[in-house]
Amino acid sequence: MAELRLADGEIWYETTGVTDGDPLVFIHGGWMTGDAWAPQIERFAEDYRVVTLDVRGHGRTGATDVDEYSIELFTDDLEALLAALEIERPVLCGLSLGSMVVQEYMDRHPDGARAAVLGGAVRSMPPVDIPGGLKSFWSPLPALSATLSVSGSAGTFRSMLYSIRATTGEQWLSVDAETRAAAIDDAGEIPTGEFRKIFDALYRYDPPALTGLEVPTLVVHGDQEAPLVKRQGEQIVSAVTDGERLLLSDSGHLVNQDRPSAFNAATAEFIPAA
């Protein structure tokens, strides 16, 4: 493992696999860590230079000095890491929050990625269009802060999962009890202040249109994903010029963990030759 030093903190990252192989960079979901990609690291390290990181506020990176997080800031960190590792045109794989980071990166650098794989792909939170001015007016952040003060990070994350499940009727996060428990444990390790900053980054993000973007993009959702999130995946695929969408059965939001073999096979087939 290693740490990238920045002016306002340090970002934990790890490189595995073939040193001179084609770069494959994984960005995890909200309140998780780079370990969420363990099935993919095991599969692709034999052939690729695999890079994982813990986004600031998460896992081994932990808290940083800035008072406010944003998807744009997380993308700045990705840019800094790629520059430090001298990586050009990687294949970028993003899960949930990580899919937002990948979309932001592609919008900034239309030729900066060889391909993108977006698991549990989401464009905004909540996954509906809310005018910018109204978003701040309807902000759930005061209620979230109150819940955090009473229930802590794990309890707040669990409440969020129950709320989503109540609207979808599905095991939204994951169909596997151990996977859900591990995700809750990861969230519980995050200090409440950092939890709120991560939520704020997700809530405030205004996604790019991606219209006409030529980066080959694969969107993968589980069949038990929230319907509005699936719709956002369709929007991504419709916007880019070379987009594909895959729906995997018996899987939820953490589709790469629920169906690792199928996810890995689809990713391997989709990645273009160097």
UniProtKB/TrEMBL annotation:
Domain AB hydrolase-1 residue range list: 23-257
Pfam family membership, one: Abhydrolase_1
This protein's UniProt keywords: Acyltransferase, Hydrolase, Transferase
Source species, domain of life: Archaea
Molecular functions (GO terms): acyltransferase activity; hydrolase activity
Coiled coil start-end: none
One GO CC term on file: membrane
PANTHER family: AB HYDROLASE SUPERFAMILY PROTEIN YCLE, MONOACYLGLYCEROL LIPASE
Name of the featured protein: Alpha/beta hydrolase fold protein
Native species: Natrinema pellirubrum (strain DSM 15624 / CIP 106293 / JCM 10476 / NCIMB 786 / 157)
Upper taxonomic lineage: Archaea, Methanobacteriati, Methanobacteriota, Stenosarchaea group, Halobacteria
